[in-house]
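Students often ask what a 'structure token' actually looks like in practice. Rather than answer in the abstract, let us consider LLM class flavin-dependent oxidoreductase, a protein of 375 residues. Its sequence is given first.
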Amino acid sequence: MSGIPLGVLDLVPISSGSTAAEALRNTIDLAQQTERFGYTRYWFAEHHLNPGVAGTSPAVVLALTASATSTIRIGSGAVQLGHRTALSTVEEFGLIDALHPGRLDLGLGRSGGRPPGQTAEPRPTTTPVLDGRTPNGLKIPPRFSAEHLIGSPRFQLQQQLLHQPGARPQDYDEQVDDILALLRGDYRSADGIEAHAVPGEGAEVQVWILGSSGGQSADVAGRNGLRFAANYHVSPATVLEAAEGYRAAFQPSDHLDKPYVSVSADVVVAEDDATARELATGYGPWVRSIRTAEGAIPFPTPEQARAHTWTEADRALVADRVDTQFVGSPGCVADQLEQLQEATGADELIITTITHDHTDRVRSYQLLAEEWQRR
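Now compare that with the structural description of the same chain:
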């Protein structure tokens, strides 16, 4: 399985008792360490108004990380296009590419969610799921509905703060088309006026589309012949339809002649299963804080996590994420990642790991890399 590359997805998490500044320093260190361990790319997510997440601007953190590393690819997982323009995105990544050419991944994601009351219809998959598992045993939990999050006052405030008053977000398909045209240098407005992004035009960036289902994002990635990242760690219930929807929509392009998929997984590795489970204790309360619309809390210690009083509603709220986190010894987790890769046909796997202590987090990535390289 060492032929399947491993990458990193970093939210720049803030641990309880720590600060955003320390989280950023830990991120730079982790990027340097995972470069040494043999990970192929290092991505930053974009999240806002979360007390426990410092990764608010992928481009800014990328610029810092690029200067501290030399070979690992770095990118966004993903820039959220709902509150920004095609031009600002291309110019930001063009600036970084100007000094670090050939190392950037521009991962693009939708943001803003669906209007309350509107849900995505499940898409059929060719992989059968019986009793919540694929034929090779990968767990596919029931679908999670984020409707309560999209309709929450906190989400509405976030949208208000991210958008200019009265601004209308551009259609996602059109925005991706504009980004690609600006990168190529052949952008034309509806009335034929040229626009050239400097820096940005001709930048050696690898464009990815990130998606959690087989809907618009998968279609956009496939139609444009771009690489696609499916999120098992965010939406494990829909990972199969996302990957299959993308492959069904794929059309060869100058970028790719065949589909290329990465799949993400939440992982905690330690020398033995018991230690790994201890390090992962804070994950449940952390996910709960996100899904109750509080915003991600600073990642708790195991002792703080055990102090949380769980209700049945709480447990149901986080069950799909907790049940699909891969936690254990290097061999145990690598087996589960092989299972994920086989079920989805992933060309790469993206690993996201959060522990309270930075040393444990680095060690988790190291143990996994060593085990993966032995296979």
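One point worth highlighting: Confidence is low (pLDDT under 50) at residues 114-119. Ask yourself how you might have guessed this from the sequence alone, and why that guess would often be unreliable.
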